[in-house]
Design brief:
Number of helices of chain A: 13
Largest sheet of chain A: 2 strands, antiparallel
Strand content of chain A: under 5%
Oligomer: heterodimer
Number of domains of chain B: 1
Strand order of the largest sheet of chain A: 1-2
CATH class of chain B: Mainly Alpha
CATH superfamily of the largest domain in chain A: MetI-like
CATH topology of the largest domain in chain A: MetI-like fold
Number of helices of chain B: 10
Largest sheet of chain B: none
Helix content of chain A: over 70%
Order of helices and strands of chain A: HHHHEEHHHHHHHHH
Chain lengths: 306, 282
């Protein structure tokens, strides 16, 4: 077990290093930061001075080493738009994104598990067909369109909920629901197929033979096993949540990291984009690491295989 | 081939998927002939005209904020959406298959480096990876295709590598090696044909993902640039008018849902038909 934990931790560190390398390459592909930072019409000497100040006249290898060293200390440069360190800009917006993503995760998992379970238990009925058709449609629906339709129905027509902003709980409802519906379809489909597999297992048949009540067999025996397969999916779901948040935040003017990144791209405030991608990806790596370690605890076979 | 068709006819979901996909491919191919009106023609007096619901009239699906016919824009937009997706899948697939072949066949360092590279790329959520690349290179059609291809190769590489690992020790490969064939020859003539089915299944499912990602990037203004009409772009343009003119964003949205649904249904069916082992790879 200890070597498994250690291996996974080292792999996670390598992944974070890889992320930083991707950010560095992207930063260098962007063009000369000195020209981007100076007002147009700056003299060649000014550009040369700034290039020297930023270390851009050094060999690429040195720049890379400096970049990694700075990034590890959380220094991604200064945002010219906000006049403060880029990472601070991103960290300020981070809680809003976490609030949105966590609400969506809870709601979406509940929805997906409910739909998937019902579909598996009502196999061969119209209920299963209806639930799975919904899930298929859900998977095919782009998250931005879903958001627009929800705004159209609940904010414009019915006027029940606000379409933009983040001041009250009511503001959270539409964006969180959009993101939740987005992830619930995949969870429903996965849970249905793994429930169907589990229900064929010997120990489920034993449970039936013991004369246990249906809800005990379903919830205590079958659902628990099926949940482990959903746990493995949690890493992928987190990625979808973080990516989907970029769009949902933009549609609903939610003041999170995703909207900040899109705005930063518009005004070419690249340090913010770089800091955001580095931070969000690091969080993503940590979530995946946690899922893997948790999975090792839940399912002992994983540890032995390694 | 006849066997495949017979099986497809017996699967309602797969059949619906195939019909939708074929229909949209035909629309895209025949767009210049079947497009009812000029999709770029402005008509400020007819701006935001509600749908007339008659295919013979102009504005059967309404007019946009500049008075352009929405149905015509959707028909022409299908070309960009599908062409971008197809090229991205081809490029991403080729890279992924080649790297997967190398990783699986040569093993050792090649395998470790390629798979680590895939892991690293997957540690950046797709959407953010696309954003940082677009931020660096700028928003344009070629860059959009590059990003979509670049985000896709890992899935092919993983699936192909897995297949190669099991093929490598099979008799026909060992025979070829005993007969003196070298690495590249074995890979090309004996292994590649046998991994293609799996790769095509992945490609179909990838197509759906690419369509969604393309429309999402175009929606954010980072993909297809005006005046080209991509469905995601049309949706974004219609966003400002949802209170007064719902048809602007509703119809392009339905087009995206239909295509992705069709491709997904077809892909699921292909996966079940060709390779039961791949179940759950999604």
């Amino acid at each position: 077990m200890r070597s498994y934990v250690l291996t996974r931790c080292i792999e996670a560190l390598v992944a974070v290093w890889g992320v930083l390398t991707i950010v560095f390459i992207a930063a260098r592909l962007t063009g000369d930061p000195a020209i981007l930072m100076l007002p147009t019409g700056a003299s060649p000497t000014q550009i040369a001075e700034l290039r020297h100040e930023l270390g851009l006249d050094r060999p690429l290898w040195d720049q890379y080493a400096i970049f990694i060293a700075d990034a590890v200390r959380g220094d991604f440069g200064v945002s010219f738009q906000h006049h403060k360190p880029a990472l601070d800009v991103v960290l300020e917006r981070f809680p809003a994104t976490v609030r949105l993503a966590l609400s969506a995760l809870v709601l979406g998992t509940a929805l997906g598990l409910g739909t998937g379970m019902i579909a598996a238990l009502k196999r061969g009925t119209m209920i299963e067909v209806a639930a799975m058709t919904l899930a298929l449609l859900g998977q095919a629906t782009p998250v931005f369109w879903l958001g627009i339709v929800l705004i159209l129905v609940f904010a414009v027509q019915l006027q029940w909920l606000p379409a933009a902003g983040s001041e009250t709980f009511a503001h959270l409802v539409l964006p969180a629901t959009t993101l939740a519906l987005f992830i619930s379809a995949a969870i429903a489909r996965l849970l249905r197929s793994s429930m169907i597999e589990v229900l064929k297992e010997d120990y489920v048949r034993t449970a039936w033979a013991k004369g246990l009540a249906p809800h005990i067999v379903y919830l205590r025996h079958a659902a628990r096993a099926a949940l482990t397969s959903v746990l493995t999916m949690l890493g992928i779901i987190t990625g979808e949540l973080l990516g989907g948040a970029v769009i949902v935040e933009t549609i609903f003017s939610w003041p999170g990291v995703g909207r900040t990144v899109v705005q930063a791209i518009d005004v070419k405030d690249f340090t913010v984009v770089q800091a955001a991608v580095a931070l969000v990806s690091t969080v993503f790596v940590i979530v995946n690491l946690a899922v893997d370690l948790l999975y090792g605890v839940v399912d002992p076979r994983v540890r032995v295989e390694r | 081939m006849r066997n495949v068709l017979r099986h497809l006819l017996r699967s309602p979901a797969g059949l619906i998927g195939a019909v939708i996909v074929v229909a949209f491919v035909l629309i895209a191919l025949l767009a210049p002939i079947i497009v009812p009106f000029d999709p770029l023609q402005l008509n400020l007096r007819g701006r935001l005209t509600p749908p007339t619901w008659s295919l013979l009239d102009r504005y059967s699906m309404g007019a946009d904020q500049l008075g352009r016919d929405i149905l015509s824009r959707i028909v022409v937009g299908s070309r960009i959406t599908l062409a971008v997706a197809a090229i991205a899948v081809l490029v991403g697939g080729t890279i992924g298959i080649l790297l997967g072949l190398c990783a699986g066949y040569f093993g050792g360092w090649a395998d470790r480096i390629i798979m680590r590279l895939a892991d690293i790329q997957l540690s950046v959520p797709l959407m953010l990876f696309a954003l940082i690349v677009i931020a660096a290179l700028g928003a344009s059609l070629p860059n959009l295709i590059a990003v979509l291809a670049l985000t896709g190769w890992t899935r092919y590489a993983r699936v192909v590598r897995g297949e190669v690992l099991s093929l490598r020790e099979r008799e026909f490969v060992l025979m070829a090696r005993a007969a003196g064939a070298r690495g590249a020859r074995i890979l090309w003539w004996h292994i590649l044909p046998n991994v293609m089915t799996a790769a095509i299944v992945v490609a179909t499912l990838e197509l759906a993902r690419v369509v969604i990602l393309e429309s999402a990037l175009s929606f954010l203004g980072l993909g297809v640039q005006p005046p080209d009409a991509s469905w995601g772009r049309m949706l974004a343009d219609g966003r400002g008018y949802i209170a007064s003119a719902w048809w602007l964003s509703t119809f392009p949205g339905i087009a995206i849902v239909l295509v992705v649904l069709g491709v997904n249904l077809l892909g699921d069916w292909m996966r079940d038909f060709f390779d039961p082992k791949l179940v759950g790879s999604r």
